[in-house]
Every structure is written in C-alpha cells, then in structure tokens.
C-alpha cells in the first residue's frame, strides 16, 4: 500500500518544571540535519525562560536533595530503563541530526544508558567515598559528609545524547537540580531526553532543558544570584568562558571548566560529582 | 556583679621576643630589601610602632614567584614525599620549641589575648604542620592523586596570622607545591618569624617566600601568570574580586570568606553550657572570626532567661592588656576595623535594635570595643545580615524548629552554624538542614587539623584541613 499517510511531526519545546512550554519569547530557530535539510524548529529560549527554569530548579531542590540517596539512585536507574525502551527513537535521531552510522548511533545510545546506570550506582556510595570521620584531638564526634551545592547551570557539550547525559547525571545523582542549555547545533535529542525524564519518576524541575543560543542564555545563568554553580563544559569560546566566569564570581558560584577534548566514551572521574558538592562537618562533644 | 573578683595583673614578659626595627621580604631563603615603600606595623593595644616592614612591589612579587618556580622545578617537586614530610615535621617541632616567643609576638602584633595566642593559635598552627607532614608520603591514598600543582599564591587575613599561614603553607608543601604568601598588612610579624623558622629548618631556598604588603601586593600575587594556585582567606568582597581577577586563567582557587553564623538555642538546651558557647562563639578573638556565632537565634520561651544569664556572664569578661594572662578580650586589630564596627553598631541603633554593652573602662590608647549585644533585631536589619567582624552579637528569637532553620539559612553566607539542644534527633535534623560548611552542636568554635573547614554559598569554596584540605593542592586523578 502506498504511503499516503502524512507524518505527525513533533513540536520541540522547552522542558521546564516538568512541563514542555514554548519559549515565552515565541521564538524558534531552524535545526537542520547532517545534510542541511530542515529537521525541525527548536524553541529559542530567552532570559525569561532561563529565569523560569532557575525558579523551577530552586523549587525542586529541597525535595530532591532531601530524598534518600537510595531513592535518587532508583530514579536515575529508571531513566536508564526508559531510555533503553526508546533506544530506536534516539538512534534514529542521532543518525538524522549528526549523520552518524547506525553502528555509531547504537554505540552512543548504549554508552548513554550505561552512563546513567553507572551514576545511579554512585548515589549511595559517593558519601562513603568522599566523606570522612575525622579523628580530632579531643572528645568530639566529628563527621564530614558531602551535600549538593544547589541549583547548577550547565552548558552541555556537543554530543547531543551521551554528552548531555554525562554532564546531567552526575549533578542530579548527588542531589543538585539542573538548568541545562542543550547543544546549540543538536538540541532536539535533549528535548526527547526530557520526555524520557518526565516519564521516569524524576520530579518536575530537577532537570530543566533550554534550547537556543548559548551566548545569549548562558550569561543570564552565570549572573543569576540564585544559581550556585556553573559547568562550562560546552563552552568552546575562551572569551565567552572568561566572561561567564567573571559573572559567576558575583555570588561566588562554583565553576567547572574542564580542559577540552573529553572522551565521552571513557569512564568518567568523580570530579563531575565532586565539583558541585559541599562538605559539611558536624561536631558534637562526647561525654556522659 | 562586676568586679566580684579582683585579679592582680599577670603580664606575660615581652623579653622573649626580639622585634627588629625593620624587616625586608623573605625571598629565595633570604631576607631582601623590597623595591617598594615600607609600612609600619603597630601594636593595636597601645598604638606603639613595632617595626617598619617592606611593601612588596609588583616586581618583588615577580622575583618571589620566580624563586618559588625554581625551587619547585629543581628541588621540591623532585624530592620524595617522605623527605618533604621531614621538613614539615621539623617546622612543627621548631614552632613548638619557640611557642612562647611566637605567642607573645602574635599577641603584640594582633591585639589578641596572650592566653588565646598561647593556648590556641600557636599549638593549633604547629599541629597543622604535624598533621600535613604525615600526608606528604601518603598522598596516593588521598583520593586526589599525588601530583602537585606548582606555585601557590596565598593571601591571608589578620585575625589568626600564624594559624592562617599554617592552614595555607602546610598542605601546599606536603603536596609538593612551593608558595609565595602574603600576610595581612596589620599583622606581618609572625609570618616573618616563620621565615626564620624555615631557615632554622634548612628548608630549601624558594620553597617558602613571604611578601609583605597590602591589597596591591596581594593583587599582583594572585594575578601573576606563573601562579598555578590561588588560596585566599578574607572578606567576601575581596574574594569576589579575586575570583574575577583569575577568571579564565584555569588557576585552581580556594576561597575562605565571610560568615554570619546562626547560633541556635532551643528551650531544652543546657542553658549554662549554651551561654558559654554563645560567649565563646562571638567574643573569642574579639569577634574577629569569620565563623563567629554572630546571630543568636534563641527560642522565645527561654529568651529572657538566656539573655539574663548571658549578660551576667558577659559582665565577668576581662578586657584590657592583651599580654595579661587574665585577659579575655583584647584590642580591636586596627583603627580601620574599629571604625567599621562602630559604624555598623551605629546602624543597629538607628534601625531600632536595642544595644546593651558591658560596662567597663576602655584604655585611653589603642583600639577597643566592649562586648556588645543587640536585642530586638529583625532579619532585615543590617546587623543581622552583614558581617561585623567584631564583638557584637545580634539576638533574634524563634518559635519552631522550622522557623529557626529558615532564619538561620536566610543569608548569602554559609560558613558555620551552631545548635544547642539536649535532643539528639533534633540535633541531627537541624544539622542536616543548615546550609553551612561547619556545624557545631552543643559546642562552638572548635578547630582541628583533621577537620575540614570551609563554606557554602558566598562564604567561598574549597576546604582547608583534613584529607579534604589536600584537594586544593593536587591535580586530581584525571591529571
């Protein structure tokens, strides 16, 4: 039978507070596939969208950071499960947007799922690995434990799935909430990943995804006084990175700017988690 | 109640200390003349000029950084951890041997009571060297790798001059870095005495360099291109400026900045112990403590009783000659700081809080401010929001644990906090909810080389002390 049916195309919007709103600015930009043909229009987020996303992330923070580590691990594992179930869609999107081979697309999707599983397992172990009982010279109980920094803004790297998962998973597994600017060139997969997160028991607002111009949105996030940290992994432009660091200094945000050339397929270090962890040390006298 | 007990003066002798009329910079193992101006350091208790100290120029700083780089490349980074550790053990031992001399000098230059310099600053500083000495050959177990960063530029404040030096230099050297350190302009003398200790320990030249000076010297140091690591302790404003100055440089930075700690007293707290903790929390070191418990949050049902006992206890504090072994409260570190404390206390009056201060005769010379508390303070008052860095306590009340947490966390700072209650589960719950790097429960202002110290939010980033303190001086496992 000839294919006379017309596709129902997806509208790619933002992912903020568990909802999929359009940009309040009403703007969009054209996203092409690897061969330069129109793939879709992506929402072009504005300053207002960025601020809404920060607000949603702040609102989600007490609940998310207050959950048990075990529970956060389960939720992130659930994201991996749902992603596994929708792997064909992601493989197709990667092939269309990046023009990679079927084998490569499968490799990246496999790695993204495995990365989520890897981080899911860290939820209830990171405290044991980076925390400490401290033998102070006196009759005191003294314990140092990690706690999330709060709301963290992220400029995601180019890899639209594996890169994105690799920067977001370590933040949420430790209890931070996130506003992430998706890869400007390949934003669509990020929104599809938002659909996965929205159906994975991840509370709304824990991860918020913006698509649009990095140079337009990132400065608003870097200077936002209710953002506690910023991960500049996806910022390739040295001058922009410097400006963002200067803006971030206003409320002494924790800044992470890794050296370029990350191999996303390799097993990560702990520093994506520890860069946005605080250490709290509690003292109490020992006596009767 | 005042003067229930008269004490005979018990002054510590100054004879153990030999202060030179002038000091140069300590670069590459020697004291050298600076190319810049010099400045005077005074005894804040008497305003007597103690010495003239060189103000390091930009080119002096450059010379010091070059010396540190040479020492790093040729000597220190090549030495085994065990051997580096031995130098640090030597330094710790010499500090203990010369403890009396250092304590007296610290008290004279800073204005702090001799009993604090003697019983806290000096022994804790020596303990830091002893602790990190033992890490030098065990770094592979730290979790942060064992690769040093290179040259560290370190800028420290005037409230605990020698102790802050120890917090900075001990972990840096243990990890294999070399350092250029700038002490505060009002308290350079113990850092210069420490330089002598490095000489006595035969520490290789250039491993430790001390450049004295003020803000311009500090700026030249942290923004020097060949500095790999910047460590700063001081105000949040200067911390911000440093973060901006090093933006884009890929230097590793740790900042220990200001605080406005809440000290929360619940109605079931052991009140006498809590009162001791409140007094120690805000009046220790004249309140010149970044983690001072400067906001007292007291549960409404016991507020009156706590205030009565607190005032009675404050009336027994002895203020005066820092070198007198009976003295509890010494001199404010500088005229400039005294002016700031007076200003903010004045704002407290103007905004409608009620001031109460200990009735005592202030010496006619020097910089003095009596132990003071403000009641009827609201969260909007500047004395509840801004760091005063002096012996001034703002008192607020609360009704429920949730309200206490809400008020305690209502600040851009997040360095420390205190909680006083007899209920164990409440301690753990409140400690979990407080957004602060150090939480003291039923105690306050406790420090130890093994215990990480540092803030959340605008109180800075990075930790000093303990295993965590090594992270700021190592490249990490991905290096």
Automatic annotation (TrEMBL), chain A:
Residues 40-100 form a coiled coil. Pfam families: Aldedh (PF00171). GO terms for molecular function: oxidoreductase activity. Keywords: Coiled coil, Oxidoreductase. The keyword Signal does not apply. InterPro entries: Ald_DH/histidinol_DH, Ald_DH_N, Aldehyde_DH_dom. Residues 24-255 form the Aldehyde dehydrogenase domain. This is Aldehyde dehydrogenase family protein. It comes from Nocardioides seonyuensis.
Automatic annotation (TrEMBL), chain B:
Pfam families: Aldedh. SUPFAM superfamilies: ALDH-like. The active site is at residue 256. CDD domains: ALDH_F16. The keyword Oxidoreductase applies. Keywords: Oxidoreductase. GO terms for molecular function: oxidoreductase activity, acting on the aldehyde or oxo group of donors, NAD or NADP as acceptor. It comes from the Bacteria. Residues 31-475 form the Aldehyde dehydrogenase domain. PROSITE patterns: ALDEHYDE_DEHYDR_GLU. Belongs to the aldehyde dehydrogenase family. This is Aldehyde dehydrogenase family protein. It comes from Nocardioides seonyuensis.
